[in-house]
Design goal:
Number of helices: 27
Mean pLDDT: 94
CATH topology of one domain: Serine Threonine Protein Phosphatase 5, Tetratricopeptide repeat
Largest sheet: none
Number of strands: 0
Helix content: over 70%
Strand content: under 5%
Low-confidence stretches: none
CATH superfamily of one domain: Tetratricopeptide repeat domain
Order of helices and strands: HHHHHHHHHHHHHHHHHHHHHHHHHHH
Length: about 475
């Protein structure tokens, strides 16, 4: 009751102050305002974006209180807002020469250097401001510093200061989320897991830390532990919809599709019906081979968000799996129309064209995928398959060699197929070289090769090579 009364009284005082100032401007008279009042007026007009009125406040302040640090500070702020950065810097330095513990001046000086693209100098003054701040402001300023480090792509420094902040303020959820983002960008997921485990030993009820731990586990493919981490987060905060959602994804990766559907349904319970969640439920039903339910969820998702391509792909996949290839093509074409920059969609379209015996359109689709994302192995792989089906084995070889250059992380898959193409074109020695290299990378991949090209298994040199690596794998 008292708080409400005081707030109402403050509003009335502010309104009276503004009315008195604007009355002075309209009458052309000069009235007296103390520095505090002028600072309040300046901040009011700055919040409203009325820079002209801010300038009127500063002009009056300079006349009434030429030596006031408050007036010099808002004068520096005015110059900053007007884009006169050097003039603003001069006035800030004047303030700091008289008051070297002025937090607002250090913050403004940092903002000036940010605008001047001198971020390392900005960080220096943000640290000065943080050292002088109260605990609440300190946390905000450290978060600002972490953002500047991220802009500089100095993620290690951002991780250090966020970790230090969390030692003092472990309940700062924003810092925990930001720290996870920095660990991700720095490519230090294992280090992040180590941090969360130590942190959780001290703060076992931090749902954000459990949630971050689950996400890191997922990214490293450790889905069982991820589910456990998400369960802890949910136990602490049942309505954490993102934890339910990511738990659903982890369960799907484990092949536990019925459980994943339950998690996605919990997500809907807490955040409402979203198209992407319905799409994931559809995927789980698809994996369970419950195609009617899958199609229904995909359809509902597309109705909620027609611009989301995934449900259209999902409906196409369901139609394809049930032998309705022409119907599948219609849905996948719609997905590509919805998101023409998605290379994977173009690959799916190429597959659909092939199944409808439209080779020319299939080739155009694969080339579009490669043009969008030339490091997508599936595009090169499926394009080479098409060329083989079109009796263009030599061109398929060229495509796969280029694909190997563009996709260094998928060499085994492409090399097995390249070996098949080289055998087909009679280049046995080259084929054996690529086959051996593929066996070294991923021995198990040879099964797909033999299934695709069973006649290769009749070659004695191929059998001997595979057996030699089989023995090595057994050891």
């Amino acid at each position: 009751m008292d708080d409400n009364f005081e707030f109402q009284e403050e509003q009335e005082d502010d309104a009276a102050l503004i009315a008195r100032f604007e009355s002075m401007l309209s009458n052309g008279n000069q009235a007296y305002f103390d520095p505090d009042e002028l600072e309040d007026l300046f901040n009011h007009y700055l919040f409203d974006g009325d820079i002209n009125k801010c300038a009127d406040v500063v002009a009056l302040g300079v006349i009434l209180h030429p030596n006031s640090l408050q007036i010099k500070q808002i004068h520096a702020q005015l110059k900053f807002e007007e884009g006169e950065l050097r003039a603003s810097l001069d006035r800030v330095n004047d303030v700091l020469s008289q008051d070297d513990a002025n937090i607002d001046a250090y913050l403004l000086k940092a903002q000036i250097f940010i605008q001047l693209e001198e971020r390392k100098r900005a960080i220096k003054y943000l640290f000065k401001a943080a050292d002088l701040s109260d605990p609440e402001a300190y946390q905000d300023i450290i978060m600002d510093i972490s953002m500047e480090y991220q802009t500089l792509e100095d993620y290690d420094s951002a991780i250090i200061i966020l970790s230090q902040l969390l030692e003092k303020h472990p309940d700062n959820h924003s810092a925990l989320y930001e720290l996870a983002y920095c660990y991700d960008l720095a490519g230090k997921l294992k280090e992040s897991i180590s941090f969360y485990k130590v942190f959780l030993d001290k703060e076992p009820y931090s749902f954000v830390a459990w949630y971050n731990l689950g996400n890191a586990m997922c990214k490293l493919g450790n889905y069982s532990d991820a589910v456990s981490a998400f369960d802890f987060a949910i136990a602490i905060k049942d309505d954490l919809s993102s934890a339910h959602f990511n738990k659903g994804n982890a369960l799907a990766h484990l092949g536990l599709y019925e459980a994943s559907i339950e998690s996605f349904e919990e997500t809907i319970k807490h955040e409402g019906t979203q198209a992407i969640t319905l799409n994931y439920i559809g995927e789980s039903y698809e994996k369970l081979k419950k195609y009617d339910e899958a199609f229904s969820y995909y359809m509902h998702a597309s109705e909620l968000d027609p611009d989301l391509s995934e449900p259209w792909i999902g409906m196409g996949v369901v139609k394809d799996l049930t032998g309705q290839h022409l119907e599948a093509l219609k849905y996948i074409e719609k997905a590509v129309q919805t998101d023409q920059s998605n290379a994977a969609n173009w690959v799916m379209l190429g597959n659909a064209y092939e199944k409808n015996n439209r080779s020319i359109e299939a080739e155009e689709a694969y080339l579009s995928a490669i043009d969008i994302q030339d490091n997508l192995a599936d595009a090169w792989f499926d394009y080479s398959n098409l060329l083989l089906d079109m009796d263009q084995a030599n061109k398929a070889v060229e495509v796969l060699i280029t694909g190997l250059e563009k996709c260094p992380n998928d060499k085994d898959k492409l090399e097995y197929r390249l070996a098949a193409c080289l055998f087909i074109t009679g280049k046995k020695d080259e084929a054996m070289t690529y086959l051996e290299h593929a066996l070294q990378i991923n021995f198990g991949g040879h099964k797909d090769l033999l299934e695709y090209c069973p006649e290769i298994s009749e070659r004695s040199e191929v059998i001997q090579l595979i057996e030699s690596y089989s023995n090595n794998n057994e050891r």
